[in-house]
Amino acid sequence: MGRFRQVDVIKAIKVITSDQDIVLERLKNRLDPDYHADISAGYRDVAMNFRIVNKDTIRMGVEGHVCELQLILIEYAMLKHDSGHARYVNFRNYLGE
Q: 4: phi > 0 → left, psi -120 to 50 → alpha, else beta; which?
């Protein structure tokens, strides 16, 4: 597995948002240097909420379903595993989110 760089995350966002079947509902960029990491216990990623709207999803009646995709750098993913993620969940619960 290769290491993902921030430029790879940017490329992925461009590919996803340029797809005509994708309706972007929200993009939360926690990799932005101006993002205050103290509100996420230091966690960093790019979270995209989107819907896929095309003839197939309309036919199946699921075009309103919102998906979340988290794009994360490998260094942050390593911190998210095991006890790191548990600490983050406890932090979010403490905040009432």
A: beta
Q: For residue 1, tell me if it sits in a domain.
A: no
Residues 43-70: tens digit of each pLDDT: 788 999 999 999 999 999 999 999 999 9
Domain count, the chain: 1
**Euclidean distance between CA atoms 33 and 3, whole angstroms:** 20
Structural domain includes residue 51: yes
Q: Would residue 60 count as lying in a domain?
A: yes
Q: Which pLDDT band holds residue 19 (cuts at 50, 70, 90)?
A: very high
> 46 is written with which tokens?
């790019």
